[in-house]
Amino acid sequence: MRFWLFLLICLAGVLAPVELARRRAAADPPPPAEPPPPKTCPGNADWPGVTPTVRLEPRPGGYGGIQYRRTPLPPRTIALTFDDGPDPRGSPAALRILEARCLKATFFYVGYYVSLRPDLVQDAIRQGHGVASHSWSHPTQLRYWSLPAARAEVDHGFLALRSAAAGVGPVEPFFRFPGLNDSPAIRAWLSDQGITAISAEAGTDDWRGISSQAIYQRTLAYMEQEGGGVLILHETRPNMIAVLPQLLDELNRRGFRFVRISANEGQPPPGPVSARVAGGGAQPRGEGAAGAGGTALNR
Ligand SMILES: [Zn+2]
After folding, report:
1. Can you tell me whether residue 287 is helix, strand or coil?
2. Ligand 1 centre distance from Cα of residue 236 (Å)
């Protein structure tokens, strides 16, 4: 009898919390469903409400029809990419222009400038943009560097970017060669680190110092010719920022759609990081230093 009493007490002790949890679960309302994304951009009904993401698989040969395989985007689809920032004037302006159109882009940052203004990188991440590396000091002749020196330069750029992004969001495992001047050896090493070289289907020629009108006309012509693709812009170029709203609105009016390229979302790029964040690095220069007769970034 005493045994049965003991068993009964034990059973009650086990079952009571289960029953309590069951009743509590039944009493709790189900979590609210995710609201569907808006069909159009709030406050700007000419634009879709979201920018879809196109995932790019790691690819040793890189992406971008200028020099690699064409980026696999749907026809007449554009992925906006901004190089050479962060820039204290241009980056906030670019973010405002994109946000007003519910557009997401990818920013290829120069590590030295990242170390000066990590807050601008964080702003971009918080607004849902992708951030990737454009080296530490923007050496447009990186292809001629020794492999150890090139590795240190790339590592340094990623370290600066990861430091800025730490606790805020992921860094894309994408690298854009300054001036698009790559070398097979560096690209192979990047691939070993899980990093994909991203070129483009077209640029806007904004780094050449041309007028806003020329940027507008050339970009529309390039995008029509290529049927969209990854597009390079520079938020460091005031003439680009000045024409960016008009340019985006015209591309949208012509039926181009926009996506954000991404890889391994939520994962920082793997690979060794050996360089220091602060100190050292040469002063970065803009695309113009690529030997095409342009000028250094004017800050
Ligand atoms: Zn650049």
Report:
1. helix
2. 10
Q: What pLDDT does 226 receive?
A: 97
The Å distance, Cα 23 to ligand 1 centre, comes to 61
- 297 CA to centre of ligand 1 in angstroms: 10
Greatest CA separation for the chain? 100
The first and second tokens of residue 294, run together, are 């342009």
Give the Å distance between the CA of 194 and the centre of ligand 1: 21
Report d(CA 63, CA 49) in Å as an integer.
27
**Which pLDDT tens digit goes with each residue over 17-41?**
556 556 665 667 777 777 777 899 9
**Architecture category of domain 74-279 in CATH:** Alpha-Beta Barrel (3.20)
How many other β-carbons are positioned within 10 Å of the β-carbon of residue 196? 26
| Single pTM value for the model | 0.80
Task: Give the pair of three-digit tokens for residue 5.
Answer: 């009493």
Q: How far is the CA of 1 from the centre of ligand 1 (A)?
A: 85
